[in-house]
Specification:
Helix content is about 10%, strand content about 30%. The strands form twelve sheets. Strands 8-9-10-14-13 form a five-stranded mixed β-sheet, with no helix packed on it. Strands 16-15-19-18-17 form a five-stranded mixed β-sheet, with no helix packed on it. A four-stranded mixed β-sheet has the order 1-2-4-6, with no helix packed on it. The two termini are about 40 Å apart.
């Protein structure tokens, strides 16, 4: 069967998924109120739209240019309902096992992995085990393939229970699950080998908050429509995203509720991301919070979506909020009661403000009117999920007062200094990616408020993959635990250099004056690493690296039609590269005798394009 026939067969199969889903909804409409029917129709309409855009049997890793041509609907101005605060104690989950339960997760080529899929909580939660899978089938498709079409409109929570490694194409991974409100355990997802995240969360229209800050996107080249039609998404954390080589067309299309966005130092410019800049209250602007708050940001400079089209994370990284003159993203204020855990006496009250859908984070330390310090405890009552709610929503009656419990600072006697108060221990773990212990734990001890510094260990056969966020910090009232994560060293592989390359140490300082030459094959470890300044590199030996840009290149978009040159005056061929196309360039630019700068785009025959023709 031809590739074209396979494509249309895939489209037909997925369209049948939407039709079946509509049938399931139709069979379950008894005792449903009229206003609920309207909402359900909207969800199934979105489901059908998603189905018509998913071809899960086809690997689309190399389809970056095609994804840019997706038709994006106009941005919705519909008022989005915020999440509900639920302070009721959680009920024990009931595991449901049936003959139609889901088998191990399969790749798009039909190969089963060691990753198990377990339904719990009356089939409203899907638990995903640890393991490894390459080119996974989208979960939307898994439901259909195993005769569980009703899960598409029923699943509310996905929980990743172990360290999960995904490589290759992760397109549409969670896409199309319109009832999904929570994904727990994303920090356990290893994406360092993923090449495409296109439409990864598309049509997850019930998600309100997403923390993707732990994603390693160093090998990703396509994020087009990644969050498209996540119409209820308020908060998005992309702190560690590296988008230097990424196509991001329509990445935020129809994210009408998005009002808080965290961007890191390696998030760089890409046009046509479709960040929301309009709404029911008129034209919106984005502001950097800085040292301010979400409602009163430090940055008073207004930023439109054009600002993000030319965004440079190395200069502008931070948290941005979307506001307008009518405060239509402003939530109802809440009152926080700070209580002494031992006596239940009130320490003090505080009125707090925030944006719609924003999560309230209690302070780790407070002081009373006499200057006495209190510290947040590990009390289960402090684990409540407090979300700022919509002041215009008359249907949801929510409590606006919350209590958090603190422990008084333990000072042995009036003459003692805070330096004499013993802080909680800091336990340092050294583990591999599966959570196995590689070296004995280290226990750090100190006084409350003093600083600590943990140390990386050299472990034979392993390299450090993840340094903990709190590798350095301060001793607190409660014990702390941090983990260094290591990856098993792999055998070296041969890579061809496309540009002359010097050798650098981990701090990006040149090691000697020797260099490798273009088109030379060199032996490196297969996984890229980041130097201390964030630049990607391949490891040659202990503390010796070559820059990945000299091997893998950098994906750049043309802003003008361009010819390919052999020299400053002579063209390499008659080929014309069209405006808007993405071209992979290698290494730094060359300066020709005519004084102009050129990027190398191929070899070993000389092929160069003028630097000024790229965005």
């Amino acid at each position: 069967m031809s590739k074209k026939a396979n494509f249309y067969l895939g489209k037909a199969l997925v369209t049948s998924v939407a039709a079946a889903a509509l049938g399931v909804v139709a069979l379950n409409t008894q005792d449903v109120k009229a206003d609920q029917t309207t909402d359900q129709s909207v969800n199934t309409a979105k489901l059908k739209q998603t189905a018509n855009n998913i071809v899960p049997v086809a690997n689309t890793t190399n389809g970056a240019d095609d994804n840019l041509s997706k038709q994006i609907g106009s941005e919705t101005n519909e008022k989005v309902q915020p999440p509900i605060n639920d302070n009721q104690p959680a009920q024990p989950k009931k595991t449901i096992k049936t003959v139609a339960d889901l088998p191990n997760w399969e790749s798009t080529d039909g190969k089963a992995s060691n990753v198990t899929l377990t339904l719990t909580d009356d089939n409203q939660e899907l638990d995903i085990s640890g393991g490894t899978i390459t080119d996974p089938r989208p979960l939307f498709w898994v439901c259909f393939q195993n005769g569980r079409i009703e899960l598409i409109t029923k699943l509310k929570k996905i929980k990743i229970t172990g360290n999960l490694t995904i490589t290759g194409n992760a397109s549409y991974l969670f896409g199309g699950l319109g009832a999904l409100t929570q994904i727990e355990g994303l920090e356990k997802l290893d994406t360092s080998g993923v090449t495409s995240m296109s439409s990864m969360f598309e049509e997850c229209s019930s998600l309100t908050s997403l923390d993707a800050s732990h994603f390693d996107t160093s090998k990703v080249t396509d994020m087009s429509s990644m969050f498209s039609n996540c119409s209820s998404l308020y908060n998005l954390d992309l702190t560690n995203f590296n988008t230097k080589h990424v196509v991001m067309g329509a990445m935020f299309a129809n994210c009408a509720a998005l009002n808080t966005l965290k961007l890191g130092t390696e998030f760089v410019n890409s046009s046509n991301k479709y960040l929301p800049t309009s709404g029911s209250a008129g034209y919106w602007k984005w502001y950097k919070i800085g040292k301010g708050t979400s409602v009163h940001p430090e940055d008073q400079d207004e930023h439109s979506s054009n600002f993000f089209d030319n965004f440079d994370g190395s200069k502008n990284a931070g948290t941005y909020v979307r506001l307008d003159s009518e405060n239509s993203t402003r939530a109802k204020d809440i009152i926080i009661h700070y209580l002494d855990k031992s006596s239940n006496n009130k320490i003090k009250d505080e009125t707090c403000e925030g944006l719609l859908g924003e999560k309230f984070i209690p302070k780790q330390e407070i002081t009373d009117n006499n200057g006495r310090r209190y510290f947040l405890t590990n009390d289960n009552r402090n684990s409540q999920n407090v979300i700022f709610i919509d002041p215009y929503n008359g249907e949801q009656v929510q409590p606006k007062e919350f209590s958090f419990y603190y422990t008084k600072e333990n000072i042995p006697n009036a003459g003692s200094s805070i330096q004499n108060v013993q802080g909680g221990d800091v336990t340092v773990h050294y583990q591999d990616e599966q959570g196995n212990t590689l070296a004995p734990d280290e226990i750090l001890k100190g006084h409350l408020g003093e600083g600590y510094t943990s140390q990386e260990k050299k472990i034979t056969g392993y390299s450090l993959k993840l340094r903990p966020e709190k590798a350095t910090g301060f001793f607190e009232n409660n014990p702390q635990s941090i983990t260094y994560v290591y990856t098993l060293d792999q055998a070296k592989i041969s890579k061809k250099l496309m540009h002359n390359a010097f050798i650098y140490d981990i701090n990006h300082h040149r090691v000697g004056n020797s260099k490798f030459h273009s088109y030379e094959n060199i032996m490196v470890y297969p996984e890229t690493v980041r130097l201390t300044d964030g630049v990607l590199a391949y490891k040659l030996a202990d503390n010796q690296y070559v820059l990945a840009a000299n091997i893998d290149g950098t994906l750049r978009q043309l802003k003008h039609n361009s010819y390919v040159y052999q020299t400053g005056r002579k063209r390499a061929n008659h080929r014309l590269l069209r405006k808007g196309r993405y071209i992979r360039t290698y290494g730094a630019a060359y300066k020709f005798k005519n004084g102009k700068l050129y990027y190398r785009i191929g070899g070993p025959k000389k092929q160069y394009v003028k630097v000024r023709n790229f965005k």
